[in-house]
Amino acid sequence: MLEGLFVNLIPQELLAVLACPKCKGDLVLEEKLSGLICQKCALLYEIRDGIPIMLVEEAKPLQEAPSAEEKDE
Ligand SMILES: [Zn+2]
């Protein structure tokens, strides 16, 4: 029931608490990609069902052109 709400209304104080699990750096909310980006690591931490997936192994690399569409291989 809170689906989607988190992405749109992620509180600044929560953003301040969230940090990249890899470098402990700041994350930037990227609503278009429904995730949080660490620019230092060039990783996207997806937000699924309103919950940020703060796992390095689940993060998506950003080196390729950002695309909302995912290709599963
Ligand atoms: Zn990082």
Plain-language structure description:
With 73 residues, the protein is α+β, with helices and mostly antiparallel strands. The protein has one domain (5-61): Single Sheet (N-terminal domain of TfIIb), CATH 2.20.25.10. The chain has 2 helices and 5 strands. Strands 1, 2, 3, 4 and 5 form a 5-stranded antiparallel sheet that branches. A hairpin with a 2-residue loop joins β3 (43-48) and β4. The termini are far apart. Zinc ion binds next to loops. Zinc ion binds at residues 20, 22-23, 25, 38, 40-41.
For this structure, the quaternary state is single chain
Question: In the CATH classification, which architecture applies?
Answer: Single Sheet
Spatial shape: globular
**Terminal Cα span:** 31 Å
The helix-strand sequence is HHEEEEE
Gyration radius over CA: 12 Å
- CATH level 1 class label: Mainly Beta
How many individual β-strands? Answer: 5
What would the average pLDDT be, to the nearest integer?
Answer: 80
Tell me about the largest β-sheet.
5 strands, antiparallel
Q: Low-confidence parts lasting 5 or more residues at pLDDT below 50?
A: none
Structure ligands = zinc ion
Per the CATH scheme, the topology name is N-terminal domain of TfIIb
Give the tally of structural domains: 1
Share of residues in helices: 10-25%
Tell me the strand percentage band: 15-25%
Helices and strands: which structural class?
alpha+beta
Q: With helices defined by DSSP (H or I, 4 residues minimum), what is the helix count?
A: 2
What secondary-structure arrangement, pairings included, does this model have?
Elements lengths: L4 H4 L3 H6 L10 E3 L4 E4 L4 E6 L2 E2 L7 E2 L12
Antiparallel strand pairs: 1-2, 2-3, 3-4, 3-5
The protein binds zinc ion.
